[in-house]
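Final report, closing paragraph on structural work. Over the funding period we assembled a curated collection of sequence-structure pairs, and we close with a single example.
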Amino acid sequence: MRFENYSIRARLALFTGTAVGALCIVFSIVLLFAINRMATQNLAKEVTAVGELTAYYVDRGELVNPLPPIPHNLIRPVQVVDPRGQVVAATNDLQNRPPMAHFRPKSPGRVASGVVCDSVFPSGGCHIVVAQQVYRDGDWTIYSAAPTLPFFVYPGVAALLIVGTAVFTVAVAYGARHTVTRSLQPVDAIRAQLDHIRSTNLSRRVPIPTARDEIHRLARSVNETLNRLESMLEQQRRFCSDASHELRTPITAIRTQIEDALLAPEDVDLNRLCDDILPSVERLQSITADLLTLTRFDADEPSELRAVDLAELVAVELNSHQMSRKVVRRLTPDVIVRGDRAQLRQLICNLLQNAQRYASSTVTVTLRHGGGDPRSAAAMVELEVLDDGTGIAADQRETVFLRFTRLDTARSRDAGGIGLGLPIARQIAERHGGTLTIQDSDRGARFVVRLPVDS
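Its predicted structure, as stored:
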């Protein structure tokens, strides 16, 4: 089974146990090495002490063979080699054997040491050999030795380290798994709650643990995401319901007129029938176009941005519309913004249609710099569309930017919009790094678009 298929608990316990086990093994090896080094140094000192004691007797001329008197706690393999290289005295275990080593100190009074393997020692193996020189009618050499120590030195210590490593590794792995299990209990509760959430009921929320840790923040983020999802789904349901209602009205009108014409085809005036149906078809076309625009905006399709003369664009849009109200123009020339020309034209068109629909007699269109140096990247321009109608109450100024939202006064008019013009206009402004808001005015509704100047 692949490692990724294990649970987080198992993976963390395995990783922690492996890491701790490896660290314990390294520590044990280092500790055994340090113990071995210390024990070897102490053993070398003992071997040197035995050689020094033998050198004392050689220096006094009290040499006997086999070599006494060496205390029992210091008895080591010892040999005395005369200046001719002959072994003249040795301990009992090295009687009648050649010299145990062939190296000598470089100068009298000094000591040389080394490790000699498979030499004259009855026990075999490797030995630490210390050579010391004594001058008595020539240079005499005393060799003393002791078997080298194994790496683990003391078997009990090695066994204790092995058992301790195993126990400590298992304990740490178990502790890590237990800790992770307890830490992930809130995650299990969150998962269980998410499993019960369905698209038909998004009101449930995941439990938030009391400990303010990463899981606490995760639970809060999940709940905030669920809030946004519930809001979006509710908006989608309302959007579909409103779109269906708006589409059903012209479709029903077209169906009724066609059915009436089919009941009495001889009495039907084709031109009049087409004239009656055309407004409903145009309404369907307008709704479909607006829905398509919103779909593209929601999908965040990229726009082709280029320098646009906003004053020229507003003038073109005013000239192309048959305005039923008086229009007052206050346009500052050469106001350049960077944006999608078609989208900006639709923004202007939607604001003009809205103003014309609710104005009593006059629509005022103002274009000016909105503050700051026009050459600065932070400079803004303001496009203001003001009508002299009844205006919009302060508590409804954000409501009109919701999709398919129309005020009651609009619903009473035959020429009322479908409630998508202003939401589309605001999205266009925001896609261009600007804003669309409703500001206070003495009379009527004052829509203000702020867009960054093209730098």
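Residues 307 and 338 are 4 Å apart (CA to CA). The longest strand covers residues 126-135. We thank the funder for supporting this effort.
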